[in-house]
Amino acid sequence: MDALLEIFFLPPMAIARVGSAELPVEAYQWSDDRSAHGGSQTIVRPAPTFEVLDDGSLRAYLPDTIHFKDGDGRIRPVAPFFELWGRFQSATDGTECERPLTTASLRDLGADRRDLLIRITATNQKSARRAQTPACGFTAQCTVAGDDYAVHDLAASSRHTPGEAPLVLDAAPIHIGRLQLIRPVEDTVTIDGNAIDLSVVRARFTPPPGSVYGPATAITGPASPVPPGVWDAPQSDYGDVFTIVDPANRILSDKTAYSNDYAWGTGRYEDPQPQDGYDGADVGTFRAWGTVDDTSDAVLEAIFNWHGQRFHAMARIFTGPPDFSPDRRPFFSVADDLADRDLPPPPVTAATEAETIAEIVDLFRRAFEAVSQFNVDGARFRGLFENRLTLAGGSSQQPPGLPAVDGRSMTAEDVPYVDRLPALVAPQPPSINSNAVANDRLPYSSAARFVHAQLMDEAVLIDFLKRRPDHVRQLIRPPIGSFAQLPVQPAPEPNPAFRDPRIGRDMMHDMRMPPYMRDANYAPLSLTRRQYGTLMALLDQLEALQAGGSR
After folding, report:
1. pLDDT tens across 223-257, in order?
2. Cα distances (angstroms) measured from residue 382 to each of 208, 276, 386, 475, 518
3. DSSP helix/strand/coil, 440
4. Residues whose CB is less than 8 angstroms from the CB of residue 440 and which lie 6 or more positions away in sequence, other chains included
5. Nearest-5° angle of CA 228, CA 232, CA 235?
6. Do 9 and 84 meet the contact criterion of CB atoms below 8 Å apart?
7. Closest Cα to residue 127, out of 255, 288, 299, 365?
8. Contact (Cβ atoms closer than 8 angstroms) between residue 84 and residue 28
9. How far is CA 150 from CA 121, 133, 175, 529, in A?
10. How far apart, in whole angstroms, are the C-alpha atoms of residue 412 and residue 415?
């Protein structure tokens, strides 16, 4: 009998997306549009999909259509499945292999599903983080036996904190999702060339509808009068009045630090970064309306007892908003963040050049996909307005040789960074506002899409990188440096290879790519360190080949 060495979930991490429809979105995957007019852009194609039947078993099929909404307009949730796998060691030759835990493999181990427990702990700590008390967070936990195939609702409430009122009462919980183990069927089906074993140990997390909850006082309120990029507004100039929380969802306590007196900027509470927005922040006294949503971060666990040993597996689930443009990828993802943490930039040599080029071509295609849904004009206005506030505070200077951070940014006066933009968006005199032209209200947005569309073609992109490597080097915003790169005391001027968050100029917006976009800390966004290092290494490799007369 093979020995079980460890168990683990696949995937180890997943993103669930809220939606009020009963049926989840069908499975899909990214693909290239190879049609005559597709331009190799990213599209979504149906993938093998599971339907959970009434008895908890699965029906596998390949959908003809992907439904992101129901016929009545309700958004379908994204409800991920998790498979439990094991790493086994052969009893004959000692080799190791990884395979899913199935009914048959459990039987071979002399075990069954009753030896397995699945536990999920889901929590929302946004308001607790702001109010600095656990009484304002809420958590749900559910433990399910391995042979229990019912749907289990996750009802969350606030933990008991001596001397403090809980935000979410046990008697009126917030429902933050559902957990269901899948009934095994000893059968294998082939869908779209994929052999799918229906006896694998699987669990499914279904996210909540995406509701907002509040105290009894969260009845009506004005929309924020703050225009994009502006922080201070006339306190008497309010927008339309709207319903804050539906009456059925006014179930939270109005006696907690968050729902009763939290207000950013008063000095009583810190302003944690990355910021968690809260309703009421930009209206009147900035006092919070005490509202929360039903999203959560969750830990899924498997506990398996076998031969006196206790095996443990964990997976992470992040519940977020719907993806309203699923065929448009961000230019870096969670996977890129993890690679940036764990993997150094790969060396670019003649042997790895083709692989690196493919990675950079995909990066530029994702940049086009991001900019194709991005209002560059609006982001430019906001970024330059924030720069104005920073400069007015005297916390930053403008060293020579860097892009402009005022109204000259991304105009003909922003030399030598501006290249084709003056011809594409003319006339654009120095100003933080876009000067719209006939039939083009967003000139910067249109120009950005036009330029990036051309760089999706591999031949055009590589030719550009080979002809103008120095221009590319100065046009790409460097990432925030690692701790090893940052000096003990910040340098007087920015380092061209990386940014230091203690240097004011490094935290200001300019036209370097990606222009005017912000990260979770409101700082100018950049590529990851690994992406940046890979692109710079490819430029060096292409230059060396050019100098040697190759290619």
Report:
1. 766 554 455 554 445 567 889 999 999 999 999 98
2. 33, 19, 6, 20, 10
3. strand
4. 446
5. 115
6. yes
7. 288
8. no
9. 17, 35, 17, 45
10. 7
